[in-house]
Amino acid sequence: MALHFDRPEFAVRLARLTDKMREEKLDALLLFAQESMYWLTGYDTFGYCFFQTLVVKADGTMALITRSADLRQAKHTSILENVQVWVDRVNADPTVDLRNLLVEMDLLGARIGVEYDTHGMTGRVARMLDAQLTSFGQIVDASYLVSRLRLIKSPAEVAYVERAAVLADDALDAALALTNPGADEADILAAMQGAVFAGGGDYSANEFIIGSAEDALLCRYKAGRRKLDTNDQLTLEWAGAYAHYHAGMMRTVVIGEPSYRHRELYNACFETIQAIETVLRPGRSFGDVFDMHAKIMDERGLSRHRLNACGYSLGARFSPSWMEHQMFHVGNPQAIEPNMSLFVHMIIMDSDTGTAMTLGQTYLTTDNTPRALSRHSLDFINV
Question: What digits encode the pLDDT tens for the residues 94-109?
Fold first, then answer.
């Protein structure tokens, strides 16, 4: 089997989940998030773009229902033994097959939690599911139950996050080796992605972000490459990925002579991320992190140019996003605890002057001071 964790690790995770299910008075849970299935069983696929769900009972019994293309995938990459297939056909409704499976598992009339808030659950699937199960039992939204359990990383998971961080550093080294006037973004992007693959890493859960000149002010990947000018700016956001575990980084590189605004915005980013390190520790909340970010940025007159979030939890994620549910935004009460892997980013996009500046890295929380996982400093990068 292509397992990245040993069976005792999976047993601990299942025990944590079933304890939480009993606390929530759930008889069963329907997992639609691929990262939930991966965390609980090792099941590794991109087949969640089609209907599939993992049924977990409060007694620890599990059964996966999926398509024939993923039957061997599930058997090979997971600890699952009960894998059932729904048949592709005209007007297929796999929720009928799921309902029949739930009957076989003695769950008629049960209280069943469902992961609705995931990319593995389309609106059409949700409607079909509700149509089948509304009268079947008591259905409740349990979208964040597993997500919250996954916030705290085990020692084995920490090792994968640390390896992902090494690959992220390697990608930055590869980018900087090529970044100069006249360099092609395509070559830089290829070198970054190649460094991750050469180090034994994976595709990240979303595309690397690369943009120069005006495109440096964008926070999302877009198609199209250009060559760097003598004086330019290049924004990069990427992640090392290993066994699907991510470590994110972000930088804006200035090519040629930096403007006064570049220096000014960099100082704001650096000061803010240093201040955040003082609150990124147990006893504080995700909301506290954002409040520190907003306070410093707003005091510098940058409220129009900053974002409404400054980072998020990272872990094992699948396309289309490496972001976890738990983000640093206003009012988030989520407590910071040891052994969380958290990506902190400062993003200032000044559209008035056309100036971009970003700074970001992944931390592992501890009992006290957070540990930056990158070997790179947060110094201003000018080539």
Answer: 999 999 999 999 999 9
